[in-house]
Each structure stands twice: as C-alpha cells, then as structure tokens.
Amino acid sequence: MNIFIKSILTFCSISITALSFAQTCNNKTFNDITAEQFIDLENGVAVDKKTGLMWQVCTLGQTFQDGTCIDSAITFNWLTAFEFANQNQLAGFENWRLPNIKELTSIQKLSCVNPAVENSVFIGIESSYYWTATPSNISGRIWAINFADGLSFADDKTTEYYVLLVRDITQ
C-alpha cells in the first residue's frame, strides 16, 4: 500500500473517531508533544519546558481542585476574553493573557482528536473552539483553534469560544 493511501486511511480513521467524543490518538503518525514536555506545578498550571510558557490546565470558568477541573467551562466573546485574561490572578500571577496562534498551536497533539492536546496535562480542555490573541487579516476576525480536531480559522470577535490562559515565566 503506498504512502498516499496510508495517509488517506489514517486521516479517515482520525476523522471517524472524532465522532466518538473520547480522545483517540494515532501515535505512529506524528512526532508530538508529550506529558514529559511539561512540569505540572500541581496548582492548576503547567510549564512547557520547550517554550518557557506557563499554561492554565483548566479551561477558563473551571476551578482546579485536587488534581482535577471542577465547575463548567465558560465561553466568551473575544473582547471579554481578552479583558478577563488580563485581570486574572491564577496561581498568584497577574500577567495572564490570551495565547497567540503560534503559542496555542504549540500545545496541539496532532496525532489526537477529542481533544487534540496532551489531555494528561490539559485536563480541562473542551473538544471545541478556543480564542487566540492573533488578529486575522480580515477586519474584525481573530484566529481560533478547534481542539476537537486541531484545525484553526479566523472568526468574528462576537462569537463565543472557550479560553485557555498563558503567561511568560520570565516576567
């Protein structure tokens, strides 16, 4: 079987399993991020050793408690998400923000769907859309990532999506 047919079958397999709503990974397909890339600070945040970024492990609206995310994740329009991120004091830090598109794609686990992240680290991620801070070249649109499948696109700022906060640990 040639490589093209194998690639098509792999894509179809990942796409079909996305309908099952449980994370499914094809670890033979990609060289992905792993849990070992992150330092779990056990207070609702994890540090990415590769990028030097500190990430919230629960989606905004959830609370980290006893190693799990409780409460319901909340969706926000982009402006509200941007303002709320800048006012957040998660884990005692005040310099939280929305990640840019490059930062948010850096936590994608390309071989997985539902969610397309390392779910042993990002325990509160919804298999849905998340805002970035990156504007598109289309007026009024901002880039977002769908963590059901890892695809990104630009959408209107008034749409409500989930939010995952990030901060630079050097600040």
What does this molecule look like?
The chain has one domain. 18% of the residues lie in helices and 25% in strands. It is built from three helices and eleven strands, in the order αββββββααβββββ. The strands form four sheets. A four-stranded antiparallel sheet has the order 2-3-4-11, with no helix packed on it. Strands 8-9-10 form a three-stranded antiparallel sheet. Strands 1-7 form a two-stranded antiparallel sheet. It is globular and about 40 Å long. It starts with a helix and ends with a strand.
How are the SSEs ordered, and which strands pair?
Layout: H1 3-17, E1 24-25, E2 38-40, E3 45-48, E4 53-56, E5 63-65, E6 68-70, H2 78-87, H3 101-105, E7 112-113, E8 129-135, E9 141-146, E10 152-156, E11 166-168
Antiparallel strand pairs: 1-7, 2-3, 3-4, 4-11, 5-6, 8-9, 9-10
